[in-house]
Design goal:
This protein is of the alpha/beta class. It has an 8-stranded parallel barrel with strand order 1-2-3-4-5-6-7-8, surrounded by 7 helices. Helix 2 packs across helix 4 and helix 8 packs parallel to helix 9. It starts with 10 loop residues before the first helix and ends in an 11-residue tail after the last helix.
């Protein structure tokens, strides 16, 4: 059972769901129409992710996404006035260059984009940034494990925290990252591309909710990229993705039918015309 559909989902409500043992549901959203649809279904969190670079803009990584683009897409989602908590991703170089820049850019996502919280990637290395943003009353969601903005350091989109021998010390580092994010004041943390036993351990250790993507069933909640869930993306689908629909096929059928009817003169008819 999720949060009360008549009440606005807030940061304290997301934290309460963990305490109550209720799973948190989250999806990405990038525009007004889909934000309305997802929200009407009762989703708890809408993440306006920098994944918009790969699924909306068609680029290979999230790195080119800019602050202005994030603000723009946040505006579209926020116009739906969703019941869900709206979280905005902080794009590459919007928080790594210094605390003043990080606070200013986080503030932009709230002030201009109407986000209700921000998300940023990293653990121990960004703990002081998280703390500084939280200290000006901007809620922060953390993100550790497979962090897409670190794709070049990781050598691709690879599972992080595998057992000793394959990635020596990686599990310990992820445990340290999780603790650092929580201690810095994040209200929740995304675990991406993490072995499920390690995600389970992190979830049990942390007082804040964990939201998994490719991190197994033991997290406090789950998130997927909307385009992957709906079958709207023709990119490679990671192992952890479950497609609940094939909208690409449905859209293709509709467009092909339209093309055939226009070419054959079947559409439009009198009922589609003004007299």
């Amino acid at each position: 059972m999720s949060a009360n559909l008549s009440s606005k989902v807030t940061v304290p409500e997301v934290q309460r769901l963990k305490t109550a043992g209720q799973k948190i549901t989250a999806l990405t959203a990038y525009d007004y129409p889909f934000a309305r649809i997802l929200d009407a279904c009762g989703i708890d969190v809408l993440l306006v992710g920098d994944s918009l670079g790969t699924v909306v803009q068609g680029v290979a990584t999230t790195l080119p996404v800019t602050m202005d683009e994030m603000v723009y897409h946040l505006k579209l989602v926020s116009r739906a006035r969703p019941r869900a908590l709206v979280v905005g991703d902080m794009p590459f170089l919007s928080y790594q260059a210094g605390i003043c820049d990080a606070i200013t850019n986080a503030g932009r996502l709230l002030k201009e984009g109407s986000a209700e919280a921000v998300k940023l990637e990293g653990g121990v290395n960004v703990a002081r940034v998280i703390k500084a943003i939280v200290n000006v009353d901007i809620p922060v969601m953390g993100h550790i494990g497979l962090t897409p903005q670190s794709v070049h350091r990781m050598g691709g989109f690879k599972v992080q925290g595998k057992k000793a021998g394959r990635q020596p010390g990686a599990r310990e580092r992820l445990l340290e990252d999780a603790q650092a994010v929580a201690e810095a004041g994040a209200f929740a943390v995304v675990l991406e591309g993490v072995p499920m036993d390690l995600a389970h351990e992190i979830t049990d250790r942390l007082p804040i909710p964990t939201i998994g993507i490719g991190a197994g069933p033991y997290c406090d909640g789950q998130i997927l990229v909307m385009h992957d869930l709906l079958g709207l993306s023709d990119r490679f689908a990671p192992k952890f993705v479950k497609r609940y629909a094939d909208l690409q096929e449905i859209v293709s059928q509709a467009v092909n039918a339209y093309i055939n009817e226009v070419r054959s003169g079947v559409f439009p008819q009198d009922e589609h015309s003004f007299h």
